[in-house]
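Entry 0007
Protein: DUF6444 domain-containing protein
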Amino acid sequence: MSGLEELSREELIALTRALMAENTALKAEVAELRAENAALRERVAKLERLVSRNSGNSGMPPSVDDLPGRQQPKDREVSSGRRRPGKQPGAQGRALAWSDEVADGDIVEHYPQGRCGCGTDLGQAADLGVTARHQQTEIPLLVARRFQHQVHTVACRCGAVHTAPGVPPAPVSLGVNLQAWCVYLLVVHAIPVHRVAVLVASLTGAEPSPGFVHGLIGRAAVAVASRERADPDAAHPGLRGVLRRDAHPGRAEEG
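Output (structure tokens):
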């Protein structure tokens, strides 16, 4: 560098320090660029792996093979001893079939709504009959209802007083159908207690506590045991040996 011999000692020291600082900054910038370059290489490799996946070399469905940039699978022959995916040759097919057993109350009539181009209300138009039919299988919306049971007491002409049976010990309770549903989810599907309580609340609006749901296991076990003593063949075979307080469905764990 020309003119260095004309610089004083202090100026040379200052220049050296400035160059060292600049060199340190450049090294840091180079290290940062190298890290970014490595991250970009890893990202490109990951994208290449994703693009190379298709129905032939992964579990992805064949519909993804037509996506832009997707590598097409290689043609390969399926050995005669390998089971093909989907419906097997000769297997019985299943499809929704038309049914003639539809109650009159389950028939929904659809009429055109609005106004005609001439301005006439279509509600006043003449009905020309049914021109198309469609059947749809649906389940009713399950919403828990509150029933109030009033227990009456009557007096016989002889003076004896009689009260209707079935007075529950608590003023508010959950019905037997709702209890049976909880036991069914606990035992047959092995759903934990907290999940059963959340599931019933989400589907019906009723809010049984996890403690109440857990207590149904013991009550159901007593009922099944009593039924088996009266008639050994009456109880459901799937309930035997399952309805115990320490059984898997009775776990009170959450989640």
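Curator remark: Residues 174-250 form one domain. Residues 244-255 have pLDDT under 50 and may be disordered.
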